[in-house]
Amino acid sequence: MNAGSLLGLVAQRIALGLVLLLAASALIFAGTQILPGDVAQSILGQSATPQALANLRAELGLDQPALTRYFSWLAGALQGDLGNALSNGQDIATSMSHRLGNTLFLAGTAAIIAVPLALILGLVSVRYQGRWPDKVISGVTLATVSVPEFMLGYIAMFLLAVQFQVFPSVSTIYDGMSLGEQLQAIALPALVMVLVVLGHMMRMTRAAILNVMQSAYIETAELKGLRRFTIISRHALPNAIAPIVNVVMLNLAYLVVGVVVVEVVFVYPGMGQYLVDHVSKRDVPVVQACGLVFAAVYIGMNMIADIVALLANPRLRHPK
Amino acid sequence: MTRIPISALLGLLFTAAFFLAAILAPWLSPYGMAEVVGDVWEPMSPTHWLGTDSIGRDLLSRMIWGGRVTIFVAVCATLIAFLTGVVLGFLAAVAGGWVDQALSRLVDLMMSIPALIFALVILSVMPTTLPILIMVMGLIESTRVFRLSRAVAIDIEVMDYVEAARLRGEGNLWIITREILPNALSPLVAEAGLRFIFMVLFISTLSFLGLGVQPPLADWGGIVKENKDGIVYGIPAALLPAVAIATLAISVNLVADWILNRTSSLKGGRG
Q1: In a domain? residue A227
Q2: Which of A206, B53, B109, B159 has the fewest Cβ atoms nearer than 10 Å?
Q3: Which ipTM score applies to this complex?
Q4: The pTM is what?
Q5: CB contact set of A282 (below 8 Å; sequence gap of 6+)
C-alpha cells in the first residue's frame, strides 16, 4: 500500500471539509439576511419606533452591504470573536465556551454508553436472528426511534424522576460539583440521548453483519465447526466494521442535534438551550454563532466518518 | 396484491383513523379547541375522557384539533418537499453535466447543516406563521428527497427503454414524466411515508421549542409544551401526544415497509 496516496486522500477529505464549512458559514449568514423585509424590523416587530429601528440597523451594521458584513463576521469568527449578543450585550464567545463544555460532557457521556451497547445488542440480535431476543430488541428500538426526543425525555422524567424518584428531574449543573454529582445530574438526559441513537446504530450494525454473514468464508467457518458467536465476532464483525463506524459517526453527529431538544426538556445549561432561547428573542448574532458551531461539529464528525471508512476499507483507496 | 399482511393492514387502519379524525375534527371533538370547560388538570372522567389541560380545556378536543394541525402541516410540507425534490432530482439525473453538478453540490451543502439547526437559524428572523413553517420545513427536507429521486432516476435512466425513447426523439420532459416517473413511483411512495413521519416529528419538535405553531392554535408538540409542568406533579397530560405520535409513526412505517417489500419482491430487488 502506497502511504503517500493514502495521506493525500485524507488531506483531500480534510480540505473538502474545510471548504464545506466555509460554504456552510455563508449559508447560515445568508439564511438570516435574504428575507422579504428588514431584519431590524422583524426583530423589533411592527410597533418599533423609527429611532429604535435606526439604532438597531447601525448596531447590526445593516447600512453596509451584505458581503462586507459577511466577511467581517467571518474574520471575527476565525479569531474567536463572535460579536456581542443583542439581548444583553455580552460577549458571545465567553458565554458560549462554558455551555459548549457542558454540551460536550452530556453528548460524550451518552456516546460512551450508546456505542458499545449498540454493538453488543447488534451482535446478540444477529446471534439469535429471528428468535425472541432479536424480536424484542428490534421492537424496542423501533419504538424508541418512533417517538421524538422530547417525548422520550418526558416519559423518562415521569417514570424515573416523579414516580420512582431515582434521578432529579432538572439537570442543574455548576462548577464545584464532583464528577459523581454531575453524572447523577445528567443521568436522565444522557439516558434519553442513548435511547435516541441506540435504535439506528443497533439496526445498522445488525444489517451490516447480516450482509457479511452471506459470504462464502462464513460458510467455511461454519463448516469448520466454529461456535456461532465466534463466527460473528471474529469473522463477520471485522469485515462489517467500515459501515458500522460510518453509522456510529453519523449518530454521534446526530447526538449534537438531538442535544438541542433534550437540553430544553431538562433545563440543562448547554449550547442547545442557549440557541433556542435566543431564537425566540430573535437575537441574530447569537443564533448565527450557535449555528456555525453546530455546523462545524456536524461537518467535523462526518469528515472523521469518511476518513475512518477510507482507512478501514482498502477498496475505497482506489476509486475506479 | 392478493394478500395484505396483518401488520400492514393494522398500519393502514390506524393511519386511516388518524386522517379521518383530522378531517372530521369539527364534528368529532366534544368541545371547542380553545374553550375553557373545567378546572386545571382534571383527571379522566366520563365528561372529559382524557381530562383537562393546564388552563382547563378539554384534552381530547385539543388532541383531535392538534392532530388536525399537525397532520395538515406535515402533509403540506411533505408535498412541497416532494414537488421540489423529485422534479429537481429527476432533472439532475436526466440532464447530467453541470446542472447535475450544481444541484448536487448545493444539496450537499444544505445537508451539511443539521435540519433542525438550519430551521432554527431561518426561523430566528422569519415570522412563525403556518405558511412559512411549511415552506421552511418542505424546502429543507426536499434535499433528502432530491438525493433519493436522483439515485433512483439514474438507475432507470440507463435502461434500454429509456434509450429507445431517446432514439425515437423524445425530449427530457417525456423521459421524466412517461418513462422514469412510473418506474420510480414505488420507492418514492414508500419514502413519502417516511418523510411524512419525519415532518410530524419536525413540526412537533419546533412547536415544543415554542418556535412552531403558535397558540391559541394547538398541535401535538404545543400540547406537550403547555402541559409539561404537570409532569413534576405526576400529571401525565403531556405524555398523551407521545402516544399519538408514536402510534401514527409506527402505523405509517408499517405501511411503507410493506410497499417497499412488495415492490422489491416483484421487481427483483430495486428499492
Answers
A1: yes
A2: B159
A3: 0.77
A4: 0.81
A5: A42, A43, B124, B125
